[in-house]
């Protein structure tokens, strides 16, 4: 799989898809696919959908791993963020009109080039998140985690292995390591202009 960033118009489509999916559910309708979606929406990738109301979190659910098409992941994450986030009551129609919709698209994981001694040089803190896989174990940490905790690349590698329930140094002993990036697209105001937030 190759790395792939969303173009601005694709990010705008993703946010609109999330909003229309939630609106359909609120109207007791079956959510429909958007017409003329770029072919890239059929690529498997991770995504999070976040809802805010008056600046406060109102729902956030996602699929960190690329296990389904981007189109399907956006729709399923939107439904879950609105109606299945255990921290909140399900969204109601009157409130949704005042909510801002945000979509965080994760790039397709890009495997780090061996040997493992060079892994740290391939990781840019603040830009890259990491995913580690070994047999049935898998762990992912988003780009902001390293920044928030002050990790250097080696500590970031170790912490991602721990997240995968592996020994910290598993990245030296055969675990596959991938880097990812996140792109955030959100409405400036409810149902308003959609912009990309620069990390």
Q: Mind explaining what this structure looks like?
A:
The protein has 199 residues and is α+β, with helices and mostly antiparallel strands. It folds into two domains: 8-107 and 182-197, Glycoprotein, Type 4 Pilin; 110-180, Hypothetical protein ph0010, domain 2 (Dna Ligase, domain 1, 2-Layer Sandwich), CATH 3.30.1490.150. Helix content is 28%, strand content 26%. Strands 2-1-3-8-9 form a five-stranded antiparallel β-sheet, covered by helices on one side. A four-stranded antiparallel β-sheet has the order 4-7-5-6. Helix 1 packs across helix 2 (70-83). This is Protein MsAm2_11770.
Question: What's the CATH topology name of the largest domain?
Answer: Glycoprotein, Type 4 Pilin
Under CATH, the homologous superfamily of the largest domain reads Hypothetical protein ph0010, domain 1
Named CATH architecture of the largest domain: 2-Layer Sandwich
According to CATH, what is the class of the largest domain? Alpha Beta
Shape label: elongated
- Cα(first) to Cα(last) distance is 24 Å
Q: Give the C-alpha Rg.
A: 18 Å
Query: What number of structural domains do the residues give?
Result: 2
- The neighbouring-strand order within the major sheet is 2-1-3-8-9
What is the percentage of strand-forming residues?
Answer: 25-35%
Unreliable sequence segments? none
Average pLDDT level:
94
Number of strands: 9
Helical content band: 25-40%
The main pleated sheet reads as: 5 strands, antiparallel
The helix/strand order is HEEHHEEEEHHEEE
Specify the structural class: alpha+beta
Annotation field: number of helices: 5
